[in-house]
Amino acid sequence: MSPSLTPATRERLRIAIQKSGRLAEPARTLLAACGLSWRESRDKLFCYGESLPVDLLLVRDDDIPGLIADGVCDFGIVGRNELDEQAGERALIGLPQAYRELRPLGFGNCRLMLAIPESWEWEGLQQLQGLRIATSYPSVLRQWLQARGIDAAVVELSGSVEIAPKLGTADLICDLVSSGATLAANQLKPVETLLESEAVLAGPAREFDDARAGLADMLLRRLDGVLKLKDSKLLMFRAERETVPALSRLLTDSEGLVTLPGGEDGPLSLQAMCHGVVTWQRLEELQRAGAQGLMVLSVERSLA
Ligand code: PRP
Ligand code: ZN
């Protein structure tokens, strides 16, 4: 039987991710790190989950909020910018908020920004009065303008927003900026940030009340484990008992020094899980404070 795409199948979880684009690869990598694997179908729009009953749906990022709202998908990995925009659009036509942001994922970072032609002098928000702003984020932009009492025209475009000033269809733009290369290539400069965005895990506003609840819990716990460990390192070393207080003070970003069982005499064997960056400089400081045989280990997996 081929897996149905209707909301009726409720014993498997379905996660929507971007089929291609900035978030596609990191989203798959993150889910794989949570222990998920899939059998790829030939059209590659639906990937059947093999290791767990969790299937993937590969779609346009703009479709993800709607798929969750309609119950076609249970989770989605999508930019906060897209969630916020569509939440605004839904509110405007009286639809309920059917999804919510569950976890920020730490990749796909970008900003929704106003950008003006490079030749302009930026004099502040009042300069926007009466101008035309091209954007694919009309709802976020309108709210932002309204909150600041600015009367500007919003020109809705579905793509190629950055070319609008040159074409004369708008005076300035409101678009996502990541590296800034797109703005620079179009002789535009960023002047105001409306929204800080990154990829997030989105899910339904309501809790699951069937077999998906347990699966969803497990997935979130694994995800939290993966996210927490991203920059974590396990530090192992030996030290004399009297140096331990000084060493502890150098490890404030750790979960605390743990003494490993060992002999009564001689130096203690110690370890600490550090959540900050362990640089050479830090290692040298620890060494000066009495740590011997320092080792920095990557942490693959951890379960609280
Ligand atoms: C955004 C935005 C710009 C580009 C900016 O598009 O619309 O085109 O990224 O990135 P840069 O500052 O690194 O040049 P995105 O990749 O999000 O695609 P989409 O809006 O079509 O989904
Ligand atoms: Zn898009």
UniProtKB/TrEMBL annotation:
Its cofactor is Mg(2+). GO terms for molecular function: ATP phosphoribosyltransferase activity. Feedback inhibited by histidine. It catalyses: 1-(5-phospho-beta-D-ribosyl)-ATP + diphosphate = 5-phospho-alpha-D-ribose 1-diphosphate + ATP. Its main location: cytoplasm. SUPFAM superfamilies: Periplasmic binding protein-like II. It is found in: Cytoplasm. It comes from the Bacteria. Its EC number is 2.4.2.17. InterPro entries: ATP-PRT_HisG_long, ATP_PRibTrfase_cat, ATP_PRibTrfase_CS, ATP_PRibTrfase_HisG, HisG_C, N-reg_PII/ATP_PRibTrfase_C. Catalyzes the condensation of ATP and 5-phosphoribose 1-diphosphate to form N'-(5'-phosphoribosyl)-ATP (PR-ATP). Has a crucial role in the pathway because the rate of histidine biosynthesis seems to be controlled primarily by regulation of HisG enzymatic activity. Belongs to the ATP phosphoribosyltransferase family. Long subfamily. HAMAP family: HisG_Long (MF_00079). This is ATP phosphoribosyltransferase. The lineage of its organism: Bacteria, Pseudomonadati, Pseudomonadota, Gammaproteobacteria, Lysobacterales. The gene is hisG.
